[in-house]
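Entry 14. Two folds queued back to back today. First construct below, sequence then C-alpha cells.
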Amino acid sequence: MLDLKQFEVWFVTGSQDLYGEDTLRQVDEHSLIISQHFDQSQAIPVGVVFKPVLKSSDEIYKLIQEANVAKNCIGIIAWMHTFSPAKMWIRGLHILQKPLLHLHTQFNRDIPWSTIDMDFMNLNQSAHGDREFGFMMTRMRLNRKVVVGHWQQQDIAASVGDWTRVAAARYDMFGARFVRFGDNMREVAVTDGDKVAAEMAFGFSVNTYAVGDLVKVIDQVTDAEVTDLCKDYERLYTLTDSLRRNADRHNSLCDAARIELGMKYFLEDGNFKGYTNTFEDLHGMKQLPGIGSQRLMEAGYGYAGEGDWKTAAMVRALKVMGAGLSGGNSFMEDYTYHFNPTNNLVLGAHMLEICPSIASGKPSCEIHPLGIGGKEDPVRLVFNAPSGPAINVSLVDMGNRFRILVNKVQAVEPEESLPRLPVARVLWKPEPDMPTGCAAWIYAGGAHHTVYSQNLTVDHMESFAEMVGTELVVIDENTHLRQLKNELRWSEAGFK
C-alpha cells in the first residue's frame, strides 16, 4: 500500500549561457552522473529524475510549471554547478508548489592542486553559485532544506533520502480524505479543531459519515470472507483459547473480523487514507473496533480514537515517511505514570488501538471487557513494544495556527510482566527527564494523543513542519523550561 518507488524527485542544475557550449555540456554530464548516483542509492526510497541544465528565466519557469503538475513529482533537488544569476529564478520560485532541497555540493571532491586553472574554476563554482541561489530563496522567504557536502558521501544520500520521505508524506497528505465516523468525543477540547483551517494548511479533508453508513457495509461482508480472515488471525497471532474455533467466544472473533472487513471496504471504496471513531457513537455495531483498527493502521491507514482527526492524519503522514524502514508508527496516548524517584516512566497505551507495527514479538489476540461504550467485549491485539529511541508527535490547533510538537523519548523494557493489563503498551522515558519533558509538553499545549514513531527522527518532523509552513516545538535533551517558555512567547508574537 505504501510503495514510495511510485514517487520521484527532479534533479535540477542551474547555470547560464555565459560559459559556452563545452562547459554547459560538462555541467549536464556531471549532473546526470550525480542524479543517477542518487537514483541508485538504497538510502533514497524514491526515483531521482535528471533534468537538463537550466540557463534562463524562461527555462526555469517552464520546468517549475511542469513540476507543479507532474503527477508523481514530489519535489525538486536544485544545485548550482556554476554561477546561475538568481534573478533568473524569481519567476519560477514564485510559482513553486513542490518542496525544494538545495544541494550544496560540487562534482569534484578535492582541489586538483597541481593542475587547477581558470577553466576548472569557471566550471566548478558551486561554492559561490549556491550562495547566490540561497540568497534569493532567503530573500523570497522560501522554506527549503539545505544539504551540504560531497555528493558521494553516504550521509549526503541519507539526508536526501530522509527529505524525500517527508516530501512523499507531504504529497500524500495533499488531497487526502479522512473519515470521521460520528463526532468528537463529547466535551473534549484537544481532539477537536478547525477542519477548514486544516485543509487550507495541509491539504487534507475530513468529513463525517454516519456510523449507520459503515454498518451497512459491515453487514454485506460474507461469512466466507469472515472465515478466511479468522484463519489469518489464527495464523498470525497467538489466539486466547476462548477465541478459537468452536470455543465459547469464537463468535466475537467473527464479529471483529466482519467489522474489520467492513471498515476496509468502506475506506477502499471512498479512497480514504484514514479515519477516526469514538466509543460514544457505535450505533448498530456489536463492539468497538479493536483488532480491526490495529490491523488497518499496520496496513498504512491513519487512525486515532475519540474523533481525533488531526492525529489520524499525522499517523498516516508518519506511516508514509517510515515506509520500508524497520520499526513502526502508531497512534498512542500517554496513559499513566511510574513516579519512582530513581526510574520515572510513562506507560503509553490506549483502550484497544495500538498498531502492531511497533510490537516486540508475536502479538496475542485476546478478548476482554472494555467498561465503556455499552457494547459487547471487543477483540484486540496485546503486546509490548521493544526498547530503543523514539519520538512522540502531536498536532494541535492553537486557534490562529497549528503547532507540531515533538518529544524525543527512550523506550524501555517493562521491569515486570503486566498480566492483567489487556492492551498493547510501551514504556518510555521522556527527554530530557520526566519533570522537564512533561512540563514542557503541557506548556506547549501538547495533546494526550500522539503518534509514536520508532523509525523517524526530529529531523524528519522539522522538514515536514517547514514544508507545510507550520510551527514546530521540539522537546529533547537540550530543553530548558525557561528557554522553552520564551520560545513559545516568541512564536505567539510572530504568528500574530
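Second construct, same run, same settings:
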Amino acid sequence: MSDDHSHPQSSLVTSTSSWSKGLRRWLSTAPETRDELIKLIHNSRQLLEPDTVAMLEGVLDLPATQVYEIMTPISQVARIQIHDSPSDIMHAYMATTHSRYPVFGGNPEEVIGILLAKDLIPFLVDKAQGGSQVFDLISVLRQPIFISETARSDNLLRLFQKNQMHMAIVIDEFGNTAGVVTLEDLLEEIVGDIEDEHDEIDHANEINPIAPVIGKNDTWIIQSSTPIELCNQQLGTQFNHEEVNSMGGLVMQHLGQVNEVLGQMVQIDDCQLTVLSVDERFIQEIELKKDYNGLSNSLNP
C-alpha cells in the first residue's frame, strides 16, 4: 500500500521542481531596464495585436511625457467667468458641449473652480417646472487641482486618482495658467484618439475599408482595422487569421521588430502590402497589390 502512495508524491515533487526551475529561468531573463522591457514588447508583435502593443508602449511612454505636451493651451480653452449669467453659461455649453469648464475669477488668468455641466441640471429642471430658483455659480463649483506643466504624465494620472478628478489646471514656471489637461488627454496617449458622441463625423465621407486604387489594376487601399476575413471574402485572398484578426495586425506580425513602420513592405502569399500612413504607433492605411508574383509567374514556361 505504501508503494501505491509513493508514486504520486514522487511525481508531485518532480513537477514542483521542474516548475521552480522554469520560474527561476524566466526570472533570470526578465527585463531589468525600461529599454529591455520595450524591446520585449516589440518582440511580442508576432503574438499580440498591434493595438495591444501600441497601448503597452503608450503606458511605458507616460513617465517620459510631460504635461505640457498633452494639455490644451489656455488660448484654446472654453472658459467661463464667475460673473457670467446662466444664459451666458448655457450659450458656452451649447457651443462646445464639454462636460467640464474652468471658471475664472476677477483676475482673468486665475482659475477659481471647475464647473461640471451636470451640476446645471437641477437649475434647468427648476426652470422647466416654473420654479424661481436663483442660480449661484459659486455654490456649484468644484475645487480645482493644479499641476506643473513640466510634471510627468504618470504623476498626473496618480493626481487624478487621488483627487477623483478628471481635469487639472496646468501652471507654468511663473505661476500663470498655461492650460488645462484632462483624463481623456491621458487616455489618448495610451489608446489613440477617442471620439465621443459630440465629435463631428461626416457620414457622407465614411472611409471604405477596402477601396480600389483608380488607374492601378489589382491594387487596393485597406484600412488597418479591416478584418482579415473580410479582405479574404472581397479580394479572394487566403490570409491566415487564426492568430491576428485585422489587416494591420497581419502586417505587424510579418514585420516583426521595426522602429518605423511607415513605408515598410511585406509580401504575403502573392500579395505585396505597404504601410501608407500611420498615426504615431498605429498603422492607418495599407496598400495591397494582388498577384504581385503574377508577372514573374506568367514568364515561366
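Quick look at the second one. Residues 1-16, 201-206, 294-301 have pLDDT under 50 and may be disordered. DSSP finds eleven helices and twelve strands in the chain.
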